[in-house]
Each structure stands twice: as C-alpha cells, then as structure tokens.
UniProtKB/TrEMBL annotation:
CDD domains: Slt35-like. InterPro entries: Lysozyme-like_dom_sf, MltB-like, SLT_2. Keywords: Lyase, Signal. This is Membrane-bound lytic murein transglycosylase B. GO terms for biological process: peptidoglycan catabolic process. It comes from Roseovarius aestuarii. Its EC number is 4.2.2.-. Pfam families: SLT_2. Residues 1-26 form the signal peptide. GO terms for molecular function: peptidoglycan lytic transglycosylase activity. Residues 36-237 form the Transglycosylase SLT domain. PANTHER family: LYTIC MUREIN TRANSGLYCOSYLASE, MEMBRANE-BOUND LYTIC MUREIN TRANSGLYCOSYLASE B. It comes from the Bacteria.
Length: 270
C-alpha cells in the first residue's frame, strides 16, 4: 500500500510557520474572556502575514472563548497518577484486548504501515486506543475556538499560537471547518493531532486526494509518519530506556502516558 504525504501549501512553508516565534505585534494574552475579541483582531493580522486565507480568517472571526477548554487545561489530574492508576483509569486492559483483535483483523494494513514507516502496529494501536477509544469518542469541542482560546490564554500562549495558525490553514484547505469537533485542547481525529502537527505530518493513506483525520487510515498513517519524522528507528526497541522511547515522548510530554503506551504496545504486539 502506497501512502502520500500531504504537503499543501508547501512543506518548507509549513516548517517555517511552525518554527516561527509569535509576532511581536500580536495582542496581549489574557486569563479570561474579556480581551479575547481584541486579541482575535490583532491575531488576524498576524495570521494574514503567515499566509492564512479568507476562510481561515472567517473561522477566526467566528471563534468563541472556550471556557470548557480553559477548565480542562487547569485540571489535567490523570497525568499526576501513578502508572498503575493511570493505566487502570484509562482502560489499558481493554485497549490491549481490543487492540490485539484489531491487529488480527487487519494485519495487512498495519503491516504496510510498519513497512513504510518502521512503526510497529502495537504502538499505533495503543495510541489510537488511548486517545479516542479507537475512534469511539473524538471530542465535542469546536477545534478552532478551543485552539485559539489556548493561543490567547497566557498560560501556554507561545506553544499554542503555531497550532492556532495551523488550524486556520486547515480550514483554508477544507480539511476542517469552523464547526469541526475535537478534544478540548483542539486536537482532532482518531489519534488527536494538534492542528499544527496535522498540517505538517498529515498523510493521505486511502488515496482520495485529501487528508482526513477522521478517517482511520489517514489518521494512523499520519501518526506513523509523525513518529518516523521525529526520529523513530525501525527495528529498534521502544520500551523505557530504549532508543524509540524518546520518540514516544514527542507524541505526549507526560511520562506516565509514555510508559503506558510502551507497555500496552508491547502486549498488543506480543
């Protein structure tokens, strides 16, 4: 199976977009809804300079301050759990059981991904199960509103601004709309890509000419591409202390998450 990396408008342009620091002329961040509309007006100028087009700018204008996103960002308790409790709360036993069955049902698909990207099925399946319960729940928050709220919020503005720009570019390209729903931090699709990463690492796996992160094939191929581009070494171990464990860290910064993925992946593959 051949997969095509989605590189619109250009890989170089996207890399520059994601690497560029926020423009100095952007409006000040804020910690409540009070300054959001003024921030959006200033951010629209920054977005234009970064190549966001008419549809993306319209989506920005329609964005609303996402109070549920802010509440979720301040209350990420599960990442503070012990590994044992984290795995129990996140349903690791079920993910492993269902993951083995999924791999057995579609070995050709996962085999093709591993052949192209070097990432074993267990890792992709574990991430898929952990993030959305294999697509069972992909979020109920408007992506553009969520990610622009986080870009405005002072807590991690610099981190989220490139992803807000990425989301607006995805709207320009028709990959998402202003109404597309995702997780509370603006992640989208089966494996919950942040928009800037979706723009950069998206893959059209089913050959329909577009990248759809709500398509399982596209989402899993894109996840494999992300890991490979972040330094995944084919045939090398991914448990804690092994070379590819560092690449799992690129997917999620929480150590308890990283350890859980490595353990579940090994059990799915084993």
């Amino acid at each position: 199976m051949a997969f095509r990396i989605f590189a619109a408008p250009s890989t170089v342009a996207v890399a520059l977009l994601l690497a560029a620091p926020p423009q100095a002329s952007a409006a000040s961040c804020g910690n409540n809804a009070g300054g959001f509309e003024a921030w959006k007006a200033a951010f629209a100028t920054q977005a234009k300079r970064n190549g966001v087009g008419k549809r993306g700018l319209q989506a920005l204008a329609q964005a609303r301050y996402a109070t549920r996103t802010i509440a979720a960002d301040r209350n990420q308790k599960s990442f503070k759990y012990s590994l044992e409790k984290f795995m129990k709360v996140r349903g690791a036993t079920t993910i492993i059981s269902q993951g083995r069955a999924r791999k057995a049902r579609n070995p050709g698909f996962y085999g093709a991904l591993e052949q192209q990207y070097g990432v074993p099925a267990g890792v992709l399946i574990a991430i898929h199960g952990m993030e959305t319960g294999f697509g069972g729940f992909m979020g109920d928050s408007a992506i553009v509103s969520a990610i622009t709220t986080l870009a405005y919020d002072c807590r991690r503005s610099d981190f989220f601004i490139p992803h807000a720009l990425g989301a607006l570019k995805l709207v320009d390209q028709g990959a998402i709309t202003p109404a597309t729903k995702g997780a509370k931090h603006g992640e989208l699709g089966h494996t919950q890509f942040l928009p800037g990463n979706a723009l950069k690492y998206g893959v059209d796996a089913n050959g329909d000419g577009r990248v759809d992160f709500y398509s399982q094939a596209d989402a899993l191929a894109s996840t494999a591409n992300f890991l490979r581009q972040k330094g995944w070494k084919p045939g090398v171990g991914y448990q804690e202390g092994q070379p590819n464990f560092a690449v799992i860290k690129q997917w999620n910064a929480a150590s308890v998450y990283q350890k859980a993925i490595a353990i579940m992946a090994a059990r799915i593959d084993g």
